[in-house]
Amino acid sequence: MIGQHRSETTLPPVADPVDLSTTRVRTDDWPAQATDTIVKVVGTASNKVTGPVTTAARAIVFGLFAAILGAAALVLVSILVVRLLNNYLPDSVFGTEHVWAAHLLIGLVFSGFALVLWAKRKPQTDEG
Q1: With left for phi above 0 and alpha for psi between -120 and 50, is residue 8 left, alpha or beta?
Q2: Which of 68, 84, 91, 126 is least surrounded, with the fewest CB atoms within 10 Å of its CB?
């Protein structure tokens, strides 16, 4: 008998049916229960997906904001120090026009700071 199938199946037996005629089911607020369940599931999924993305976006925004404020503060403090040095450098040593000396001193301070940072860097190792 080629092409014919047996009508028997080999599925495992199912559990015994439950008699629901004696069980009381609250049918008056099942739409509210279903809505609450859907809201809870969607909220949980949303928090798991958008939580880390929101945290990363906030870190980027606040980091950029801090970097911009830090750069602006550094520029303003540098201007303040140059003007203070220009006012208090002695004319007998540097002459009457000594803004160049204030710029030179600030440049030396920044260069010294850069050299300290350069000395603390970790050199790359050649592997391979």
Answers
A1: beta
A2: 126
